[in-house]
Amino acid sequence: MKGRTVQVMKLALAFVALAFCAAPVPGDVGGCGQDSQPLDPDVFFWSLQGIECDHCQQCDLSTAACARACGQQLVQSAFPKDCEPLVHDGEVCLRALQDGSCSDFSDYMSDRAPTIPTECNFCPLGAQP
């Protein structure tokens, strides 16, 4: 029985060592190997508006925010002052929006108190356009 206990402890130690050795290197977390590239506001905001319009139509939402999102003009074309998101930030935000439910989009596209997913909150608090 002692031999089996020793083997189990060695195996457990090996798993712990593997976990520490296989962990990501500080600085690489969240970057997915991408270079730091600034997010193009036109590309991002057109993509954002397209996703919003698609969800408004799929979820049968009829708010003023949905009407703006489905319009032919870009609703927002610049990030707030001192806000410099990266391409990866925009990709994460758009992916979160694409995966949003109708209930989520009802909140996002509300005319009274719209919200945004936390993945899209990549600008500093109080930033002004």
Give the arrangement of secondary structure elements:
Layout: H1 2-21, H2 41-58, H3 64-69, H4 87-98, H5 102-108
Helix pairs in contact: 2-4
Explain how this protein is built.
This protein is mainly α and 129 residues long. The protein has a domain at 38-74 and 82-123. The chain contains five helices and no strands. The longest helix is centred in the N-terminal third of the chain and has 20 residues, at 2-21. The chain is elongated and about 75 Å long. The relative contact order is 0.14. The model is unreliable at 24-29 (pLDDT under 50).
Question: Key features?
Answer:
elongated, 129 residues, mainly alpha, 49% helix
Radius of gyration: 22 Å
Secondary structure: helix percent: 40-55%
The major pleated sheet works out as: none
Rounded mean pLDDT score: 81
DSSP, total strands: 0
Q: Any low-confidence stretches, pLDDT <50, length ≥5?
A: 24-29
Strand content: under 5%
**Count of individual helical segments:** 5
Shape label: elongated
Name the helix and strand elements from N-terminus to C-terminus, one letter apiece: HHHHH
End-to-end C-alpha gap: 70 Å
Brief digest:
The chain has 129 residues and is mostly helical.
